[in-house]
Automatic annotation (TrEMBL):
This is ATP-binding protein. It comes from the Bacteria. InterPro entries: HATPase_C_sf. Keywords: ATP-binding, Nucleotide-binding. Gene3D superfamilies: Histidine kinase-like ATPase, C-terminal domain. GO terms for molecular function: ATP binding.
Amino acid sequence: MIVNINNSDVGINNLSTLIRKLSFIFNYEGKNVPNCEFKITATKLDAVSALVIFKAFDFASKYSCLESPKANLNNILKLFSIYGIENLMKKLVNQEEADGLYNNLKPSKTADFFIAPHPINRESFKNKQDLENKYTQFIADYYQNICPELVQYFKTCICEIASNFLYHALEDNNSILMAQGNKKKIEIVCVDNSKGILTTLNPDNKDHFQVMRSAFQRGVTSKKDEFHCGTGLWYIEKIAQQLNGTLRVYSEDMLYVFKDGKVFVKKSPYWKGSIFYLKLNILKNTKIDDFFAKFNNPNKLDLFNTQ
């Protein structure tokens, strides 16, 4: 079996195609299927495509899906080097232990661009102060002279996304949250291979369209007994709406899209777990503070309770 991934398979608008090419891996758990070769010939990878490919290799390695898969490693490492995860990718392609490398991920920036990978696991997120001090502050510093009025909303989105993955991805301790941006936009991506939204929220409901749509409504939560109020995904979508942004969430066999003020929910190629992509535009004229004034608590984010 040869899996070809080229320029027409990557990018946020081609993500369904990429998932379709990789989803076979989830059927091979524990089977050690031989003679699989990956030819990744794309000339550039966006963050979401990079993490999707990364997590596919991670799943294959963790669950013994493939026996000694082949890959054009030199090109793959070059593509992943921009995100600072080439050493992790090398370990996964070679089916070697990579856990020790996750905590060495570090943000980096140039004058007009930043990349900030961060592991999503309970060791790295001991509390919300750890996330704010070690990760979101780096992003806040980047934007403090560009759009200081929007920094809190960026931080909130990152914390909410991280919180969702931390609480729900109990089967996956090797997820990475990636934030990247410049003076015009910020993009936040996270991918896991745990239980998806459908299974977590309402596993008995066969109407996946209904379950996926309801996940973004205010007050809907899978953890009512733990005092979660079900505002995280709703809040993120509202911020995207105020900043002319885009939100795309793939989970299991469904896709939820918010774009240009409209919501689309449709079937998707199967992905075990969830893929989260958020783009927020840097707008100079926004009334976002007025819109969210009644929802904000300036004293705390109140996102983490890992006890």
